[in-house]
Amino acid sequence: MTNQTPITAFGPHKAPHQTAASRAFPFLLTLITDFIIAERDLEDVGQSQDPAYSLWLRDADRAQTRLTNGLRHFHALPKLALADQPLFRTALIIDAMLNCEELGGARRLHHEMHFSFFSQFQVPGIGVTAMQRNAMLIQARHLMTAMVALPLFDSAPEVLDDTRVSDEPPAPTF
After folding, report:
1. Which of 6, 113, 149, 152 is most deeply buried (CB count within 10 A of its CB)?
2. Which 3 state secondary structure label does DSSP give 123?
3. 156: Cβ–Cβ under 8 A, 6 or more apart, which residues?
4. Strand, coil or helix: what is 98?
């Protein structure tokens, strides 16, 4: 008969090591969620003649301002712990996506983030601190996917490889 030993984190009942960045990151996720909700509300209304449209537009502008200020505040936090580096990288990607003026640039950044997520945007290990940070980073990844799906980032067609998008119909194949 074999002994079965569950693989769990070392000291699973310990509290994770908290830093200023790990305490501020959940608030940043809340700001991203508010921004996504405000932009989706604006999308649902469209640019209709509804008198409340200006209120939805104002809410979307305020949500974007709060997110921009939250990102600025997060970037100003001290970078003391090695486990906080993926949090700061994620905040940099979100900031770059919001400020990207290149056609399709935000979607390109998001696509590149997916390829390097497990190497650059995760904390290695199975400790309590790593598990807490990774849970926040996975939530941020889902929010970034929802954010890049907003019509705000629809300025260019999504191209995932180096092929060019043209207006010409495809050539017939025989």
Report:
1. 113
2. coil
3. 103, 104, 107
4. helix
